[in-house]
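Changelog-adjacent note: as of this version, every example in the card shows the full chain rather than a window. The one below runs 150 residues end to end.
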Amino acid sequence: MAHPPEPQAAHDAGRRDATPQDPPGQGAGGPADHRGSLARRLFPDGETPDPRVSLANERTFLSWIRTGLALQAAGVAIEAFAVIPEPGRKAVAVLLLLLGMLVSGGAFVRWIGIERAVRLGQPLPLPLIAPVLGIGGAVGSVVVIYLILR
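Full-length structure tokens:
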């Protein structure tokens, strides 16, 4: 016959830092932090946000990552398939690779910034990835148009 599970308070009573006055799941230092060490290091302060907010932030991060990967794939494709004549092909390929790298790196910085702002109840940071992508796309378009019309 199976024994019923041990109540949480009895489990916590076995911990050295818990006292009988502590609510279940808490020790002398306040609520138990069950997050991993990386999460505690990245987000040491603030309150855990609504999971829907964190998941929306993660979906946006993954969208930016997809955009960065697409730019990098385009750079590789332009160089591999020689779509543009040689003098400018390398320049366009490198521009797309760098832009993809910036977007991917910026996605992580933005994800961290939003997560911290939400946890601390602060306003969301400005999106710096969008101007980088817009300016990079405009410069890339000008270079491609120049190479085509040359």
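Structural remarks: The chain is about 65% helix and 5% strand.
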